[in-house]
Amino acid sequence: MSVPRVQFSDGHSIPQIGLGTALNDQEIVPVIVNAIEAGFRHIDTAYRYGNQRGVGQGIRDSGVGREEVFLTTKLDGEFQGDDRAVAGLDECLRQLGTEYVDLLLIHWPLPERDEYLSTWRTFEQLVAAGKARSIGVSNFKPAHLDRLLAEATMLPVVNQIQLSPRITRSDQVSYHREHGIVTAAWSPLGSGSGLRDDPTLAAIAAKYGKTPAQIIVRWDVELGIVPVPRSTNPARMAQNLDVFDFTLTTEEIAAISALDTGAEERVDSDTIGH
Predict the structure, then answer these.
(1) What does the pLDDT look like over 151-177, one tens digit per residue?
(2) Average pLDDT over residues 74-91
């Protein structure tokens, strides 16, 4: 199954649906193989997840060429400041068994440390060195992005944030659009929130013969968002990609967006992060 791609401001592009990863090195290998067999060509990991060796092994075991897989990783606070990101990405590449990543993200802004600007300058150097093809951020608020955009030579192509119909962050998504930044969504299915049991989603799912999870993924697609759902179940992986044979109406998109419950579930990256 071919997944459409979303264009980046730097000329590269990303498959619109990715696979989030959370398991350890041993457990993640067959998950990656199954995901690629199901049609995933966008794999999302991070140094913090402790599974990059397994992710890299799974890609190799899949039999699909490295150049066919869009690979994202993230560096956490251990590698923020000065040139520490150089060593951080080198370690990620060693663990993944690859010479480059398609997308490198600053995992959290950690504003109290005030090191994400110097980290970004190092990220720009890593693009020039050919070790990262595109660079972006994760969990950044507009205030963090304002500072970054004012000083950056290269603009972040992505901001990956917590986003689902329960937490739509519509103002932030609009900010991203205005600045040419693609919005990617972690926890897009609202893990642990009971979102997939919502009667609104159930009714729309019944209309199209889909699952509530598929309706949520399609909602992301309609809004130009790149969802990165986690799954270890091959059937559900395939379902998460099987969302391109129907289109939600304007009214249905609005009804799903209206499921936003406000700020109480939101992750505040001014106060937490790693």
Answers:
(1) 999 999 999 999 999 999 999 999 999
(2) 94
Per-residue exposure over 158-188, b if at least 16 CB sit within 10 Å of its own CB, e if not:
bbbbbbbbbbbbeebbebbeeeebbbbbbbb
49 is catalytic: yes
Structural domains of the chain sorted by starting position, each given as residue range(s) with its CATH number in brackets: 5-190+225-230 (3.20.20.100)
| Alpha-carbon span 260 to 257, nearest angstrom | 6
List alpha helices for 209-249, DSSP H: 212-222, 234-241
CA distance 52 to 159: 21
Taking CA atoms, 249 is separated from 190, 246, 254, in Å, by 22, 10, 9
Three-class SS of residue 274? coil
Pairing of β 158-162 and β 182-186: parallel
Q: Which amino acid does the sequence have at 147? A: R
- pLDDT score of 204 more than 60: yes
Residue 198: DSSP 8-state: -
The residue from 47, 49, 100, 116 that is catalytic is 49
